[in-house]
Amino acid sequence: MKEDPRTRSRIMRAVKGKDTTPELIVRRMVHAMGYRYRLHRKDLPGKPDMAFSKLHKVIFVHGCFWHGHDCARGARMPKANAEYWFNKITRNSLRDATHIEALKIQGWRIAVIWECELNKLERVRRRLAEFLN
Fold first, then answer.
1. What is the mean pLDDT of residues 94-107?
2. pLDDT level of residue 8 (50, 70, 90 thresholds)
3. Selection from 99, 118, 14, 98 nearest residue 48 by Cα
4. Where are the alpha helices (DSSP H) in the chain?
5. Contact 65/76 with Cβ under 8 angstroms?
6. SS3 state at 38
7. Whole-number Å distance between alpha carbons of 81 and 84
8. pLDDT value at residue 5
9. Structural domains in the chain?
10. DSSP, res 119
11. Burial (Cβ within 10 Å: 0-12, 13-18, ≥19) of residue 103
12. What pLDDT does 62 receive?
């Protein structure tokens, strides 16, 4: 079933760019570990989801579909308007790579947590603890 343009527009407006469920899960996990951070620092490339200034480390929490992850959810491509979505996701991936490279040049260490990884919370917790220590 195909939605009319107004319905599709309403759906797309509802997609959040920050404070997403995966992001909130990671934030709660990091906070429970005793770390404090700043959210979405506008002065850093890509406005990382979490920035640990004293540690000079940042964390991005990416949605698999929106950022082109190679998992099952990220690899699926909508059938409707496929060329648009392919180009959009490709641009997102290239932008992510550009931001990560700029952060590395500035001396930041970067961790990317993918939405699909949150199925195994203990593994993510260990990875974050290792990254932040």
1. 98
2. low
3. 99
4. 5-13, 21-32, 64-67, 72-75, 82-105, 121-132
5. yes
6. strand
7. 6
8. 77
9. 19-132 (3.40.960.10)
10. G
11. buried
12. 96
Return the sign of the alpha-carbon dihedral for residues 125, 26, 33, 111.
positive
Token pair for residue 112? 């990317």
The CA distance from 50 to 26, in Å, is: 9
Phi/psi of residue 61, nearest 5 degrees? -115, 110
Question: Is 78 a residue whose pLDDT tops 60?
Answer: yes
Amino acid identity, residue 94? Answer: L
Give me 62's structure tokens.
């990416």
Query: CB-based contacts of 51: which residues, under 8 Å, 6+ apart?
Result: 37, 38, 39, 41, 44, 57, 58
**Is the CB of residue 59 less than 8 Å from the CB of residue 31?**
no
The answer, as to whether pTM is greater than 0.70, is yes
Q: Count the residues in the chain.
A: 133
Q: Which two tokens stand for residue 76?
A: 């699926």
Backbone angles phi, psi at 71, to 5 degrees: -85, 180
Displacement of CA 14 from its chain's centroid (Å):
17
Q: Are 60 and 103 in contact (CB under 8 A)?
A: no
CA 76 to chain centre: 17
> Shortest CA distance to 114 belongs to which of 130, 129, 96, 99?
96
